[in-house]
Amino acid sequence: MMRKILITGASGKLGKSVVKFLAEKIYAKNIAVLLRDKHEELIKQYKSKNFDVRVADYDNLASLKLAFHDIQVLYFVSGNDIENRLPQHKHVVEAAKSAGIKNIIYTSTVRKDDSKTAPLATVVGSHKQTEEWIKASGITYTILKHNLYSEVIKMFIGDKEQLLKSKTIYLPTGLGSVAFAPRNDFAEAAVNILLNLTNYENEILEFNGSEKLNFVDIAATISKIVKVPIEYISLTNSQFVTKMTELDMPVSIIGMLSAFSLGIANEEFDQQSNDLETVLKRKTQPIYEYLEEVYK
């Protein structure tokens, strides 16, 4: 009998992508999707395709325990509320243990610096603690340490119109490289694991893209695509904050971009493992191809 798999974060882009790939391999009735808002239009869409819809909130332990009933495998997408992520994740692990879930696949992050003074200490700390809770739970686990999505490049540097106007990428990333991979590659790999769990029991995998690029490389690549020279200028963090403030960027966004940029400069995402290629049985989407889709 097929074990029932629950995909959390099924209203988010990663969760939706995992559901899509998984539904191409197994019957929808064996896939449960977790949504937070019971009034979501997405609930109707999922139900119309015969998915088992569960409604719960990471903030509400009781709702999670109900939602996890009769689930054997949990694909646990980390929460995006950084400030409240620790108690939320504790609820998920506690509910999973209470419900008797057999396997947890958790989306974590790659990292080199676990210290409290690291640029991404808040982000990394919550992932590290969640991993420890999962291991201590006794539930069979697979931890997937994601590198940065290719999709964040646009978030970091702006769309085509913005780039053509400024002809410059301003970031405090230095010459730090990132092994970017597109969200769909992470999702496809997750599905390969979900369908072959015994091969990945109690393993920690590092999911990195097949190429490593810094923002000098990215500026050069986009220059070829748009046929206009795009310059990369590595600012100090204080210069970056000042520049973005002048452009009326929200403080929360500036803080997030600053932290991740400093993490890149600190080589947090300059990783070597080819686990993602191994699980996919192919290389990840070339960055040129992704950037061409976005900036052509």
Key terms:
13 helices, 2 domains, alpha/beta, Rossmann fold, globular, 9 strands, 296 residues, two-stranded parallel ribbon, UDP-galactose 4-epimerase, domain 1
CATH homologous superfamily of the largest domain?
Answer: NAD(P)-binding Rossmann-like Domain
In terms of structural class, how would the helical and strand content be classed? alpha/beta
Estimated helix fraction: 40-55%
Number of strands: 9
CATH topology of the largest domain: Rossmann fold
Number of domains: 2
Cα separation of the termini: 47 Å
Q: Output the number of helix runs.
A: 13
CATH class of the largest domain: Alpha Beta
Strand order of the largest sheet: 3-2-1-4-5-6-8
* CATH architecture grouping of the largest domain: 3-Layer(aba) Sandwich
Q: Overall pLDDT, averaged?
A: 96
Largest beta-sheet characterization:
7 strands, parallel
Beta-strand percentage range: 5-15%
| Run of helices and strands | EHEHEHEHEHEHHEHEHEHHHH
Structural shape: globular
| CA radius of gyration | 20 Å
Question: Low-confidence spans: pLDDT under 50, at least 5 residues?
Answer: none
